[in-house]
Write a structure and sequence with these properties.
10 strands; eight-stranded parallel sheet; disordered N terminus
């Protein structure tokens, strides 16, 4: 097995050149399979990645919100990046979230990601201190100058308290190393304006987070989705993306209904963490990986697990994954 110090010096350039520009399709925001607060579920990680690949996804986004990145140690983040890249073996692009409260740690994670074989980085606005837009602009420009990889911006104001406003993105669009935006804000008018901004760059991707907006996002010129539901049935989201690209309204309607049905798992919990818990609980019930959730969150208790199981059992079209234990 190749170690990081055996990676050729020119691998960073080779890695980023393997990234389609613009990146299109379904790029799941991969959960981080855990056994406890600082131990990866290694077998589960392998099963999960193979499950997603078998479903035809177009890339993986590691260490995003669904991946619980802010709750993970920097050591575990590095281990996850390395193991994920070894498992993927360059079959699809791997994107890694580098968002951190520390500028230096963001750069260090990015350098590790480049050495491991990652194709691009992703950053939201730094959380805790709410930066003004001039500060966010300058921060991102400073970050780009030191990054060894291309960068996607990640608009996630619910978690960071600071949005990437459209004027800020318009100015950052001129940075050659920035190659797109993932928008999880849920404001479709904002998303449409992002698409218009992107047309000045033929290599820019605009990807949508909320899965109920995927088909509409493609119709208005978006490039794909970073959708948590793709963990459970990746082929469903790939097919929905493809149907939307073809303009097949009947097929889109049929598949969209399945996405809505699958989304019932997000309504099981009482808190905002229900999305992560619902996905992890479902993956555990499907035999793919453990459902341990990093503190301060906690996995579903038996009553919630039974509700999730009932939802999955009701989906006649949801086939068991071939990689399940």
């Amino acid at each position: 097995m190749t170690t990081l110090d055996q990676v050729p010096q020119n691998e960073r350039v080779t890695n980023s050149s393997r990234l389609p520009r613009p990146l299109r399709g379904i790029v799941p925001p991969m959960v981080t399979p855990l056994l406890d607060r600082d131990t990866l579920d290694l077998a589960g990680l392998e099963r999960l990645i193979e499950h997603l690949l078998a479903g035809g996804v177009h890339g993986l986004f590691v260490l995003g919100t669904t991946g619980e990145a802010p709750s993970l140690s920097h050591r575990l983040r590095r281990e996850l990046i390395t193991r994920a890249c070894r498992q993927v073996r360059q079959r699809i692009p791997v994107l890694v979230g580098i968002t951190d409260t520390s500028f230096v740690e963001s750069i260090e994670i990015a350098r590790h990601a480049a050495d491991a074989g990652v194709q691009a980085c992703v950053t939201s606005a730094p959380y805790y201190f709410p930066a003004g837009q001039p500060e966010l602009l300058e921060y991102t420009q400073h970050l780009v100058r030191e990054l060894p990889l291309p960068l996607f911006l990640y608009n996630m104001p619910m978690m960071t308290k600071t949005p990437f406003e459209l004027d800020t993105i318009a100015r950052l669009r001129d940075e050659e190393k920035i190659i797109g935006v993932k928008d999880s804000g849920g404001d479709f008018d904002y998303f449409q304006k992002l698409v218009k901004l992107s047309r000045a760059r033929t290599d820019w991707s605009v990807l949508v987070g909320p899965e109920h907006l995927l088909a509409d996002a493609i119709r208005c010129g978006g490039h794909g989705g970073v959708n948590g539901g793709a963990h459970l049935c990746p082929s469903l989201f790939v097919q929905l993306y493809e149907a939307a690209v073809r303009g097949d309204a009947a097929r889109v309607g049929e598949l969209q209904q399945r996405v809505v049905q699958l989304g019932q798992i997000y309504k099981v919990g009482r808190h905002a963490s229900a999305v992560i818990k619902g996905i992890k609980c479902s993956l555990a019930l499907m035999g793919i990986c453990d459902d341990f959730v990093a503190e301060p969150l906690a996995r579903f208790l038996p009553p919630e697990r039974q509700r999730v199981r009932a939802i999955l059992d009701s989906l006649e079209w949801l086939t068991p994954p071939s990689v399940a234990r």
